[in-house]
Amino acid sequence: MEPLLLQKPSYSRRALTRLAASEDIWVCWRCNGRDDVSRVLDISIDGLFIQTQHLKVKEGMPAKLDFLVQEGRIQADAVVRHVKGGSGLGLRFIVLAEQDRQRLKALLSRLRSHHGKPPSETFRPLEQE
Question: What number does CATH give the domain 19-112?
Fold first, then answer.
């Protein structure tokens, strides 16, 4: 049996649950002198996880985020919290203006309301004229 200090806790360290981005949400981001556009895989009021192959970033590096959703444009300063080789980055918001925070809350509310619904209920088909 491992000593208590070496055992990993059975609970999540994340204070807030992240919601799966059930629709295509993309973010423009800049980190380590490079601009990129990536798909958002999950998101919370504190941060997000993006899909990227970009591996020239390290934990603790600052990043600038800019994304446009139904609720409006959201800009944030973030920091890289973890790098998952070949699949993506976890980013934590560190600066989010109040209007951006309100838009983010509205986005999360919308995602929460669609959580678990099949795509046919989540998206309305385009009406043909």
Answer: 2.40.10.220
